[in-house]
Amino acid sequence: MGREIKKIKHSLQDILKNWSFRYVLWLSFSIVSVMITVVIGMFMNFQYSRRIDELMEEQIAASVSQASVPLYSHIRSMLKASDALYYNVIREAHFPEDSVYDEFKLVCEINPDTIESIALFDDEGNLLEASPPAILNEWVDVQEEEWFQAAIQENENVHFLDPKVQNLYMASNESYNWVIPMSRAVQIHYNDETIQGVLLINLQYSWIESIFDNTDLSNINVAILNEDGETIYDPRQRLVSLGLEEDLTEIFREQPNKDGNFIYHLNGKQYLASSRTIGYTGWKIIGVGLDQEGSISSVKGRLFVLMLFVILLTILLILNVYISNKICLPIQELVLHVHEIEEGNLDETINVSGSKEICQLGFAISQMKYVIKNLMKDIVMEYEQKRKTELDALQSQINPHFLYNTLDIIVWMIENEQQEEAVKVVMSLGRLFRISLSQGKRIIRLKNEIEHVTNYLMIQQVRFKNKFEYFISMEEELGEMATLKLIIQPIVENAIYHGMEYMYGDGEIQINVTQQGEDIWIAVQDNGPGMTQEMVKALEAGKVVESTKRGSGIGVRNVQERIQMQFGRKYGLFIESELDVGTTVTIKIPAIPYESWEGSLE
Q1: Same domain for 387 and 446
Q2: Residues whose CB falls within 8 Å of the CB of residue 115, separated by 6 or more in sequence, listed in order
Q3: Cys-Cys with 455: which of 200, 432, 533, 549 at CB 3.0–4.6 Å?
Q4: Which H/E stretch holds residue 495?
Q5: Same structural domain for residues 582 and 482?
């Protein structure tokens, strides 16, 4: 075996001795070109097929999202309307002396395209109030209705039932509309007693239709299914006509929590599907589309890829002939010059003869020598400038929503003739942004940073109607220390939005500034719901983790990056948290007097 390999090797060497360098170069380039072109063609074909599926999945997911967002928004609005009626109207009324008809009527008039009717029943199914005024059908047993039993049996939830024909009330024109019952258990003051009742809001079925009318359903079949996979709404009855309804029902029964994109096969065809659960209802919006594999557009695409492959291969072979004729002779001379540059000789003049391209390459290499010299001088300056630019970019991230909400509070106070409170908020806001700007400085006194946080907390305390208290502790001499601006306020903002906003009791935020050796420690502590250790580790690793749908405008990661970019990796944030106890975020910075830093960092 070894002898045969040696014979083949010697034979190739003998053949190559009789070939010119130009021909060897052309043949080598041609073989490589064919191989590369084949790989590129296969890769393009694979990418094209995958892209078709991705585009289809994106189109399906977009259609599902386009339909789910307004549907979820309407449901949230109805939940808020239900809460308003219960907590602000029904609980304040004393039946049968009081009437809540006007409030029911007002809610119906505000939502004419969504709400069909509103009614209040006692625990025995007796109608206490209704808007529009209605008379119960004699043959209807309210206590046996599904919406009534669901509210009584699970009185802590709001229940959305499957659409049905409204047959609870007598209709003057003997026509009954399709409605979606929404019910909840309520506490009623009746004859000096507190009894349990049921609030029923019948939602118009047509508002679902209006949502789908505004959704792009081209080539996509979108429908709403209940928790059992049964169809609630199918705008074109496409799932039934394609034979997909029963198949989807089985899928959702086997995997009731399945959300996202998935693939399944039916009757020899592959379907791409995407589903999303609508909160509070258990409903799912499902989008289904036929996989485009094997379609006419897919075949045309593959023919285009094949044609592109042939054209590319032909061009490469022609270029190989041209390039091999141009670069063979002067290339060795150019290689020698390059070796000298690699050895550090940047002063020798490069003179290369040959084709225009080789001469240009020689000239480019000659220019490269001078560029390398200049780059070696400028690289340090550019690195420092880049570092300063990155610091400024991180520091410039400001959350505009805080300003908008604060201005709304000021307008509300003025309209309610709370001028003194409005003045306090305006003054705090002015001081807040004065310190935020700080004449363009990144380094400020620690007392100014504490003043900034104090103004921010005062404004937030007004916004949240004194839902929390705050305490700030700092020795006076520490106020003259230097610090990066806007490093405490983002942490306090997280404590408010992730802790105070969702607390049932009184919230408390404490800020303690102490000096330990050569370092300043700023501890921001809250008694909010806390975080899991996985979330704490993710935050310390620089990942974006939000326990709510709202987050800091600058954020934990921003503060961490700015501190470490300015002071080094040993400084930054340290997080301690325990569920149902609270969270403590400690900021560590060097203890350096502001006077010694002024003018040296900006």
Answers
A1: no
A2: 78, 81, 107, 108, 201, 202, 203, 204
A3: 432
A4: helix 489-498
A5: yes
Residue 514 and residue 498 in one domain: yes
For 560, the token pair is 């961490």
C-alpha of 56 from chain center:
21
Lookup: tokens for 320: 């190989």
28 and 131, same structural domain?
Answer: no
Q: How do residues 11-69 score in pLDDT, each as one tens digit?
A: 655 555 556 556 667 777 777 777 777 777 777 767 767 777 777 777 777 777 777 88
Tokens linked to 204: 């118009």
Domain that holds residue 119: 91-208
Plot region of 542 (φ>0 → left; ψ -120 to 50 → alpha; else → beta): left
Amino acid sitting at position 557: R
Report whether pLDDT(250) > 60: no
CA gap 533, 79 in Å, rounded: 33
Q: Which residues of 478-500 are buried (b: 16+ CB within 10 A; e: fewer)?
A: bbebbbbbbbbbbbbbbbbbbbb
- CB-facing half-sphere around the CA of 18: CA atoms within 13 A: 4
Residue in 465, 489, 462, 480 with CA at minimum distance from that of residue 553: 489
pTM for the complete prediction?
A: 0.43
